[in-house]
Structure formats: structure tokens, C-alpha cells
Amino acid sequence: MKRFGFFGGCFNPPTIAHIELIEKTIKDKNLDMVYFVPMGDLYKKENLIPAFHRVNMLKIAMKEKMDILNISIDSQKDLKAIDTFRIIEKEFNQSDNYFIMGSDNFENIKFWKDSEELLKNYKYIVLNREDDISSSRVREKIKNNEDVSQFIYKDVEQYIFENKLYQ
Question: Does the domain at residues 3-129 carry the CATH identifier 3.40.50.620?
């Protein structure tokens, strides 16, 4: 049976830390594929750039055994985690599925819609974020014209500047 991971988030922008954590997770947990599940444009978050830019940057940054699912992006409504998980379980019913999230998000899952079902019915891989650079810090550095080359891939940085994002 195939083993898939699903990693939701804004990826605003995707960082080297995002990709390296997923590469390590694929190896450590023997996953066949990890799907990034970016939040759609209906998700309410300050400074969230349009989804197509975030998807384009993910495509640039992704490595082997990584792909993108546009479930939230293609939806006509703001999906909650439980909605997304149900869709994934229905579409990927022939595989062993794991939902990947940072420890900070996992700690807050008890406050999410249908939290009991989330905790009871789904399997998780919880990642420690430690002190990796956050997307919000990268956005702040870009806005301040500071060097971000150690936090995002060069091609992603080029995409950001060509499209005048986060400035």
C-alpha cells in the first residue's frame, strides 16, 4: 500500500525549511509522496498573496516525491481542516495517509472545527519547527530589502522579485 503525506499551509512564501523538513519526513517515514495542500484565496490571513503565486513558488521549490493538491484553492468556499481531510480520504482511499503539520498547529487542533473527529480518525506526522525561519520573517526581510538567500531558494527569490511580491 502506498504511503502519502499531506502538508497543508499558506506557503507564503515556501522556504528552504519547508522543503528540507518534507525531504527528511519522506525519508524518515518512508513516504511514497508528499502533497503540499496550499490554502486558497478565501482563507483569511493578513498579507496572503494570491494562491497562483504561492503554487508557482512551490512548483519551483519542490523536489523529488513532492506534488501539489489544489483542494483548497479550487474550492468555492473556505475549507476547514476537517473538510480538506475528508476530501483527501475520499480521493486517496487506497493509500495509507498521514497529515503533516508543525507542532504549533497540532497543539491548537483541539480548537479546530470537529476536533474530536480530527484527532480520532486521522494519522499525523508532527514536525518540530524549532527555530527555522518562518515565512512571515522572510516577507519582512524582503519588505526591508534584506538578504533572504539563506532562507528561500534562489529561483523562488527571483520569482518574488520579478513579480514584485511582498514589497
Answer: yes
